[in-house]
Structures are given as C-alpha cells and as structure tokens.
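Q: May I have one protein plus its fold?
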Amino acid sequence: MEKTLFDKIWDAHVAHQVEGGTDVLYIDRHFIHEVTSPQAFDGLRRRGIPVFRPDRTAATADHNVPTRNQHLPIQEALSRFQVDKLTENCREFGIRLYGLGHPYQGIVHVIGPELGLTQPGMTIVCGDSHTSTHGAFGCIAFGIGTSQVEQVLATQCLLQSKPRRMRITVDGELQPGVLSKDIILYIISRLSASGGTGHFIEYAGSAIRALSMEARMTICNMSIEMGARGGLIAPDEKAVEYLRGREFAPRGADFEKAAAYWRTLYSDAGARFDTEHHFRAEDIEPMATYGTNPGMGIGISQAIPGPPAKGNGRTFNKSLEYMGLRPGQKLAGLPIQYVFIGSCTNSRIEDLRIAAAFVKGKKKADSVYAMVVPGSKQVEKQAEAEGLDRIFREAGFDFREPGCSACLGMNEDKVPIGAYCVSTSNRNFEGRQGPGARTILASPLMAAAAAVAGRLVDVREGL
C-alpha cells in the first residue's frame, strides 16, 4: 500500500496502539530548555522516577538568556532562576546541557540540526511550538506541553492521535528578492492562520526542492502558524550532505548506511493526502504582515485589505487598530523604528549572510535601532570568521550573542510601546515583542532593507 512520508515515519514509531485510535509513539530525540522543563523535572522527583533515556535528551538555555555579556551573571531574577534550575536539573538527571558559555549553546531549533542531533526519519519533540523546524530533514517533529515533557522524560514515549495529512506543493521559480520566509508567509496568508488545523503538512514541488536546508527550516518552522501540528520535507542529497561530518551524525560506514535509509524517506507516488494545495512560485512577492496573526500578510506592492466577507470583522478591525493601520493603506513607505534579525526562524548563517550582503557599505537609518542575534555560538563564530559581525557594526547594527532575544517578550530584548519592529521571527501577536509593540514579520532581506531605509521598502527595487 502506498504511504505518505508522514505515515512511514509514524507507523515505524508506534510502540503500542490504544483502543480508540490513540498511539503510544516512541520519541527518538527530546530537546528541552529552561522555560518548559522545570515543572517536568519536579514531577519526576515527586514520583521518584529517573529520566528513562537521558542519552536521547539534549538541553540548552535560549529563551530567557541575555544577548549581551553572557559571561556575567544574569541580572534579571526570573531568568537567572530558570537558567540555574535547568543547570541543576540536567546535572541531577544526567542530561547533556549546552548552557551559557558552552560552544554549542544556542536556540534549541538551531543547534539540533547544526550538531547533527536532528536526522531524517526521527520523531522529535520539545516543549516549544516551533519544534516543527526539524521537519525540514524529513522528521516528525512537533511541540509538546509541560506535562508531556514529563511523559517523555519518564518513558521516551508519548500518547498521540494521528493527525490528518496535507500536502502543499509550490512549483516554479521565485522572483529575485523572494526568500523562503516569503513563501511561508504567502502560504499562510492564502490558507489563514487556521488553514492547517488538524493536519501535518508535507511541502513539495520544484520551488521547495530548490531551497537550501536552512531555507527549508524556515518553511517548516512556521507550519504551526497556520494551525498545523507540524511540517516536513522529504530528505534529499542536500539533507544528506548537510549532515555529513556534523558532530553527532553517524560517521564512515555508519553514515553511508544511515544515508541509504534516509533516501527511502519520501511519499509514494500513489499516496493519498487528506488535503492538497498548489501554489505558483512566480506569484509570490516579498511579504510583510499588517495585523496581529501571521495570516494577515500581503505582498509589499499590495494594499491592506478590508474586513473579510466571512469571519470576525470586529477582530480584524481591532487588529488594525492595534497596529495603527487602515484598509487600503500600503505597507511600502511605512516608517519603522526597530529591526530584529534573529529567532529560530531566521538566525542561521545563511540568514545573516543575506542581510549582511545587503547592508555592506551602507548605514542604517538614524531613526532605527537594528539588532542582529545569531541563533547559536557556532553561527556567531562563523559570522565572525566571515567578517559579517564587522559589516553589521559598521552599518550601525547591534550584533549580539545567541538567544531567542526579541522574538518574544520573555527577556530583556523588548520593543517599546507603539514602536514598529520589522522582525524575522514567526509571530506578530499583540505584545509578542513587548507590551504594545507592533510587529511586522518579514524576511531577513526585507528587514535589512527596512533598517537602511528607515521604512518598509520593496527590496526588488534595489536588486
């Protein structure tokens, strides 16, 4: 029987089927961080249970860490407490930790792939919704709640209902200036922030296959922004070569054996999906959001639409009121005050190279505070080796140390009330980057261009 890629991986990991359609799913890799793990460890202590497979769990500090002076004690009390608790818990339960000061520290969804901990065919979970990032390697990867973190620590399994399968095919060639971030923002704008609800999405088509692994991670990262359980892309030679030589990837003959298996991971020609969508790459232009959910996005040449004919017009109007925008207005030319290049969506070396190539020899606008936050110590080190940090600093950007940073208002890197921030992160909810902050999601190229111009611009005009 022909199977989808999702079905192949899922079925291979079912440890037990529970009456009523729920499966006990074995988890290959468990990532944890300082925010959603403390309660789980406390639960283990109360029950006197050890971590069942500590070798299958890896930890890092990312959400609450400062992105300046990481060699000094954390000043903010709650952040310091959470990071210290992660250190204590990992020491007590025998879990490897990439904490502050470690050369592998970074955003959990950045370090997994770059260390080779993420591999095709795996089931991967983390107490973080953007675990779907790892699906770029042909994994079933999804976020879980704190109680489920405890389940996985205790049993290396998870009780799950199998989601429906969706395939999104993007064929054709992208316009100049259009990146993977634009692809996913376009898809979400067409399907809405709930268009993937109940599904696990496979991305396919010539435009997807043409993307680098880092660009594919951006696509899968934002799958949940359309309500999906996660997203994945069939592994190919790009995935194989990306993993070759990584710290925790197999080596020698073991690598070739693993790669031979990875090459079998694809949806069969006759496999049936519950839902199918097709898009043309040529129709996608540089995107930006105008509202307070990622589905409220438009091409930079377009005008903000009016309230939807169907749906909640009151919510739509409230969103525009929060953003200080109106129907019929174009985003191009909108003055902005902050730019954030970073997050688990767009903080890899490829993202930094794209932004640095644009700003090289230029200066940011005086009215803009622009920050670049690499996704990991390894990305930071590579950026410094290539001189990207110097390019950013010479252009007036603040080049920081790794962490989730201004993606979310959980640390010191917040956007002030009422300020517009062009952000390469994944969510533009009210207050996401700080109370009253107005977030506009865009690609690293669009963000870099906005920093230089002091306003939103169509990057195609400068290419």
The chain has a mean pLDDT of 96. The CA atoms of residues 113 and 134 lie 7 Å apart. The chain has 15 helices and 19 strands. The chain has three domains: 5-161, 164-236+268-283, 287-462.
